[in-house]
Amino acid sequence: MPRKPEALLSIRNLVVEHPPVSGSRMPLKAVRGVSLDIEPASIYGLVGESGSGKSSLAHAVMQLVSPAGGQAFFQGVDLFTLNRSALRKARQEIQLVFQDSLASLSPRRTIRQTLLEPLNHFRIGNATMRMEKVMASLETVGLDPVLADRFPQALSGGQRQRVAFARAMITEPGLIIADEPVSSLDASVQSRITDLILDLRDRLGIAFLFVSHDLTVVQKLADRVGVMYLGKLVESAPSEELFSKPAHPYTQALLRAVPVADPRHPAPVALSGEPPSPLTPPAGCVFHRRCPDVYEPCSIHEPAESFVIGEKTLQTCEHRVRCHKWNSVN
Ligand SMILES: Nc1ncnc2c1ncn2[C@@H]1O[C@H](COP(=O)(O)OP(=O)(O)O)[C@@H](O)[C@H]1O
Ligand code: SF4
Ligand SMILES: [Mg+2]
Q1: Domain contains 3
Q2: Pocket test for ligand 2, best of 227, 299, 323, 329 (most atoms within 8 A of CB)
Q3: Is residue 1 in a domain?
Q4: Measured from the CB, is residue 200 less than 6 Å from ligand 2?
Q5: pLDDT tens for residues 186-196?
Q6: pLDDT tens, 256-286?
Q7: Residue 187's CATH number
Q8: Domain of 221?
Q9: Using CA atoms, how far apart are residues 276 and 316, in angstroms rounded to an integer?
Q10: Where do runs of H (alpha helix) occur along the chain?
Q11: pTM for the predicted model, two decimal places
């Protein structure tokens, strides 16, 4: 897949392995050759069941886990070739937000100290400017400035996650990688945080890699969606296209499992069975043991990536899928 010149982040053939777990001598391949592009000021939603490799991919971009292969071009430069000081500089441009805000904020630092830390670390501005930025960032994420002198434990989960976004945006990054940032919040707080993410994209032009197992949240947020299964990206498309015309049987099954608050809509159908272990991935298509449409080649040959070209779906919208059914149509 050629690299897109206009992309902010281009991941190519990324492989992530974790050290062998007890009882095995083989490393666990959590991500197996994933390529994707994130455009500036856009939200890329990465979905899939638990264990499909979403976090491993997200963390490998910033080398919180070491990639075992592939490339990650940020503004055209491969992050995996950078030395320590260049990677440190890149971290100003790519920030991370995690699910557990309590664990990611130091209990010994006030919110003001927490927000000053990246400004001091990257030597941004003088003392007065830094203080102004702290206050402006609190305002951007909709927090009362009086909270600056509180500790994270004194804040609600939603307020803490806003602080996490304030800390991520304070260095004016091009990209925020957010791994399940709203999963532990209740529905109304989730909705306010997703509005904040849309606002940060629209007002500040920040791009997001938004990792989530929750398709409803991703549908609200994402410009483009990628679907992972057992370490592979099995489908990717513009959000509207993916939710209206899912092409991969796995995506179709995920969407059938989403509850919809409309009595005319069919009842959700849970996807049956469990994904295979990444230690013993099946031959052929990764999804063939659970696929309702499985046929002869599926258990033998791995499907190549192909474009979905339908009535209204043009190659230009880049709807890509890994499924033999689509190989035979193109
Ligand atoms: N630090 C680790 N050591 C060993 N195995 C890991 C580690 N982190 C994740 N895994 C395994 O890698 C696979 C992918 O996990 P993960 O990337 O966390 O998926 P997701 O975020 O989609 O739930 C899973 O089988 C998980 O058990
Ligand atoms: S390649 Fe075969 S098993 Fe895999 S998703 Fe397509 S039809 Fe199903
Ligand atoms: Mg995860």
Answers
A1: no
A2: 323
A3: no
A4: no
A5: 898 899 999 99
A6: 998 877 777 778 888 888 899 999 999 999 9
A7: 3.40.50.300
A8: 9-329
A9: 34
A10: 54-61, 84-93, 101-104, 111-121, 127-140, 157-169, 187-204, 215-221, 239-244, 249-256, 324-329
A11: 0.95
